[in-house]
Every structure is written in C-alpha cells, then in structure tokens.
Design goal:
Strand 1 (190-194) and strand 2 (197-201) form a beta hairpin. The strands form 3 sheets. A 3-stranded mixed β-sheet has the order 4-6-5, with helices on both faces. Strands 1-2 form a two-stranded antiparallel ribbon. By secondary structure, it is mostly helical. It is 63% helix and 4% strand. Bound molecules: zinc ion.
C-alpha cells in the first residue's frame, strides 16, 4: 500500500508478530465460536446464580468460589477474541475487516458483561458482616483480594439497568471516539521539509527525528509535526472535548468527587500519596533546569528550544540493529535472573513481538497481556536508535511481568497502573547499567547517561506535568464548557513552563503538542503512574544493588503476584513503605545524583574547563 520510497527502512523490517496462538486469521470461525460459547455460558450462569449471591442467610463460600471460576472462564473466553481483534487492529488499522472485528468483539464483550453484571452488583449488596465472613473463609482462597477489593466500588456503582445502558452506549460513545482518535492518528502523515525536499513520515518516524543530532532536522520535524497537528486540530480537539465531557458525566452519575478520584480508587492508592509524589517532583524542578543548562552547554547552544531537548549530546551515538538489541536485552535480563531471560527469549523465538514500523500500524509501543491461557504480545516501532533498545527493554519488562502473573488468573493478574510499570522500568535499569558497564569511552558514557536522565525526566517530571495539565483540562471543561484548541494550548503551556524553567525556551508550536498524546484519550490520569513506577523502581534497584542475589526471588514473587494483593501490601513485603514522607524524595535524590555524575563526566572530557 505505502510505496517503499516514502518509508524509512529499519533493521526490524520483517519482525512481525504471529498471532496464531490466539486465532489463525481475521476469518477464523473459532472467533465466532468462542464468542458464541461465552455468550451461551453467560446465559447458563445467569439462570444458575441470579439471586444466589445475596440470598437470605448468605451464599455458601464454596458455591461462590465455583461461581467465580465459571465467571472468570467466561470473561477469559470473550477477552481472547477481543484481545485478538485489538491486536489485529493495532497492527493494521487500514484493513476494514480489522476495525469491523474489533467493533463486533467489543459489542459481544459488552453483551456478555451485561449478562454477568448482576453477579458483581449482588456481591456489593451483601451486608458487610456477611461479606467479611466470606472473604475470610478458607474457601475464598485465591479470590480473597478480588472479593475484598471489588467492594471498594460500592458507593460508585449504579443499578443493573443503568450499568447495562452505560456499558452498551460506551461502544458508540467513549470507545468509538477513542477508536476514531487511533484511526486518525495512525494514518496521519507529516510533511518534513529537508534540503528543499518534502518527505512524508508517520508520527513515530517524525518523533524519532527529534532525536537527530542535526538541529535543522529536529527543527523541520517539529515544524512538520505542528503543521500536521494543526491541520487535524479541529477534529482532534472535538474528540478531546467530547471525551472529557463524557468523563465528567460518568463521574456525576457515579458520585466521584473529583476527576482523579476514580483513577485513584482503581489504582488502589490514596489521593494523599499521589499528591505527595507530585509535589515532591515539583519541588525538585531545579534538577531539570540544572540538567538542561548543562545540556545547552554541551550542545554549544545559547538557547535550548523545545525541539532541542532530545538532541543527542554526542553526535554519533552508536546505532543499534534489532539483532544486537535482542542480544543486549537478553544478556542484561539473564545476568539478573536466568528465569527472566528465559521468558524474554520466548518473545523473540516465538514471534510474540511486532517491531517494524509501517503505515496504518499504531505508533509507540505496548505489551498486551491478552488472556492468562495464552501469553502477552508486544508492539513496538523500532528505528535502530539506542533509545529503541530501552523501549524494547521496557516492553519486555511488561511482558515478563504479565507472563509471570498469569498463574493468579484472569481476575487478579493485572496490577493497578501504579505498579504496572515496575518491571518495565526495572528492565530498563538493567539494560542501562549493562550498557554503562561495557562502555569505556567517557564521551559515549556521557551520551548514555544523558539519555537515561532524559528518559527519567520524561517518566517522572514530564508525567507529573501531563497530570497537572489533565487536571486543568478537566476542570476548565467542567467550568467553561467546550474548549478551543488555543485555550487547551494555553493550559498545556502553563503546565509545561515550571518544569522547563529558564533553561528551555518553549516555542508557540509546542502549544499544539498535546494533540497526539494517547493517554489523555485512552486512560485519563494514567500518567502519574509512570512517575510512581520510576521512583519506586529507583528505590527497588538500590535495594537490589545492596542485597544482591537474595533480592531476585522476592522480586520475581512480587511480579508473579500480579494484582492479587494491594500494591502497598505487596511492596511492604519487599520492605518498601510508600507512605513514608522521605520515600519519594529518596527517588528524586537518585536523579539528582545522575545529573551530578553527568556534570563530572562533562568536565572529564574537557567541557567547561
Ligand atoms: Zn510501560
């Protein structure tokens, strides 16, 4: 479809996933078979258990346990088909069959959910006393945390008919707008004008150019990105406005006191802890400023503009082809734990990973857990840069985590977002330290350290900025109604300025760059989880360095536990107290140390002397 001349070839060409462990093809009759089977079993479930959970005298724990096993199996079946449809669509949204299958699987999933929702609601209606007796009975077994944690949604759950209407209308409402966003952005092309020639690139390829050593290339990429976003601003802004309003309506229905409340609740985290994390980061903005002052000097620039932030401090950072990337990542994982390496290896050997960039494929990268009876799949857009190695290390961390937690079952394998980034960021640390140890040239070392610092800034300080922006966006939409892109741009710039301080000059173009950020669309208020995860991992990594090999099995246990207990309790077992006031400050102190180390390395290579 796209002519080869307009695409950037990378060494990951041909690294395409094999989704056959889910289904054979988009036309595989087993998809319809599974969806029909799930629906049939849901009907039987409804007949058998309706009115049982909150029956007079209480349900027998053994009966509830059996019901949960069937409930879990039905969802797993429906989600197998839905995961497949989502992955097909993410890999190629141009093929209309993929979109149609995604829509169909989603609709069927909703139908099944609607048949089963009585079960969740009845559990919430069980009086506290009886519920706690069931939760603490030995028969509750593996479902204890699930049963307990479901009850926290009690004040925010509606009646069965209301829940059903919300679920079904979301397919033509919230989920439809979210998909429209994906489809628009995945086919957007940006005209990048270089040496009098205009090259058409997709989003991933355009963003990759912001890491180019040549300022003219970065500037052209930034300009091209801005033009493309502005051309689509009307539609994209409409999607933003609609989804933010939809979010407000749901919050009102469900009696959530503020826009972040539902996210905190599903993250199993206190508002107070998140606010502590965010303000700690904001109090440490001087680290960012100090680093960018060093960077401007290293680049020999008087003014550092937004499009200079990702410029490599070293002109020629070695590039890295996909084969070498695989080797580095596997070796780093293996040095930490042979078991972790073994699992990571499966992704390459069995083609559970799709790494080539292509038109119509979703940008960025993710690891999809799919369902516990299958295994995760990873999507990435590999462009031969060293930072792509870190992306693969990151997604494989997710992959290993998701793979290990399959044993706790469908209902409890997913962690809350706050700890979902633990293994991914930890995997990045392993690869980063490996690269630093192997490197003896202080210039390349400095280059590596700077890109690690920049990645850490992007996952810590930037994510806090994104969260503050989202807070302002939701508040403004609620207070003032539909917002213009210019107004949203102002909120965006206001949120970004404090982090960059005097060290980075944000151009007017930058005011449009909120338009392509998927998290605002797919999972509102996701972003603080990244900051949480990164600072947490810095602390865990320090423990690993101190404790050595004895740390490894406890860490793998943490991953295997998935979401079968609250993050606070699971981390408590590792000796981490996220409520301690100095915990978050400790994480930022490590980042400060990295910036100081960069300053020392810079002096070593003669900079500033
Ligand atoms: Zn991640």
């Amino acid at each position: 479809m796209a002519d080869a001349a307009t695409k950037t070839a990378t060494s990951a060409q041909g690294v395409v996933w094999d989704l056959a462990d889910l289904y054979k093809s988009v036309d595989d009759p087993a998809i319809e078979g599974d969806l029909a089977d799930a629906l049939e079993r849901a009907k039987v479930f409804d007949k058998k258990y309706r009115g049982r959970v909150n029956a007079a005298g209480g349900i027998r724990p053994q009966e509830l346990f059996e019901a949960l096993r069937e409930y879990e199996a039905i969802y797993e079946l429906a989600d197998k088909a839905l995961s497949y449809a989502m992955l097909l669509h993410a890999g190629d949204s141009i093929n209309p069959k993929h979109g149609a299958l995604r829509q169909k699987a989603q609709a069927r999933r909703s139908e099944i959910r609607n048949m089963l929702v009585f079960f969740d609601l009845e559990w919430l209606q069980v009086p506290d006393e009886i519920a706690s007796r069931i939760i603490n009975s030995p028969e509750a077994g593996q479902y204890r945390h699930y049963l307990e944690s479901q009850r926290r949604f009690k004040p925010h759950t509606l009646s069965e008919p209301e829940e059903k209407i919300l679920e079904e209308t979301a397919n033509t409402g919230r989920r439809a707008f979210s998909r429209l966003f994906d489809e628009l952005v995945s086919v957007m092309e940006f005209g990048i004008k270089l040496n009098g020639e205009v090259k058409k690139l997709n989003q991933s390829e355009t963003l990759a150019l912001l890491y180019d050593p040549d300022r003219a290339v970065r500037k052209a990429a930034a300009a091209g990105l801005t033009v493309g976003l502005k051309e689509n601003a009307r539609t994209l802004t409409y999607i933003f406005n609609t989804l933010v309003e939809d979010y407000a309506i749901i919050d009102r229905f469900r009696s959530y006191p503020d826009p972040m409340a539902s996210r905190h609740l599903s993250n199993e985290i206190d508002t107070g802890i998140v606010e502590m994390l965010m303000t700690t980061c904001e109090h440490n903005h001087d680290i960012v400023e100090r680093y960018y002052i060093l960077k401007a000097g290293l680049l020999g620039l008087d003014v550092l503009y937004d499009y200079d932030r990702y410029a490599p401090v070293l002109d020629r950072m070695p590039s890295c082809d996909f084969g070498r990337c695989q080797e580095i990542v596997l070796d780093s994982y293996g040095a930490f734990s042979p078991r972790a390496r073994e699992i990571a290896e499966l992704f390459f050997e069995k083609r559970w990973i799709d790494a080539e960039p292509r038109l119509g494929k979703r940008g960025g990268a993710f690891s999809a857990s799919t369902v516990p009876t299958v295994h995760p799949y990873i999507l990435a857009n590999y462009t031969d840069k060293l930072r792509d190695v870190m992306t693969i290390a990151h997604e494989l961390g997710h992959g290993v985590h998701q793979y290990l937690s399959r044993d706790v079952g469908y209902l409890q394998c997913d962690t809350p977002l706050t700890t979902a980034e633990t293994a991914s960021v930890f995997g990045e640390m392993l690869v980063f330290n490996r690269l630093m140890e192997e490197e003896h040239d202080p210039k390349v070392k400095l280059g590596l350290l700077c890109s690690k610092i920049e990645d850490a800034f992007a996952t810590v300080f930037r994510q806090v900025v994104l969260t503050r922006f989202e807070q302002k966006l939701h508040a403004a939409r609620r207070a003032d109604g539909e917002l213009t892109p210019e107004r949203i741009g102002e909120l965006w710039m206001a949120a970004n300025k404090p982090m960059h301080g005097k060290a980075v000059q944000l151009t007017d173009d930058y005011g449009w760059w909120w338009l392509y950020i998927q998290h605002f669309i797919h999972v509102p208020f996701y972003c603080y989880a990244y900051a949480f995860g990164e600072l947490l991992v810095l602390a865990l990594y320090r423990k690993y360095q101190k404790e050595g090999k004895s740390f490894v099995p406890r860490y793998l246990d943490l991953l295997s536990a998935g979401g079968s207990d609250s993050p606070e309790r699971l981390l408590g077992k590792m000796g981490v107290d996220i409520k301690a006031p100095d915990f978050w400050q400790g994480g930022t102190a490590i980042l400060r140390g990295m910036v100081e180390e960069a300053e020392v390395l810079a002096r070593k290579i003669g900079f500033g002397s």
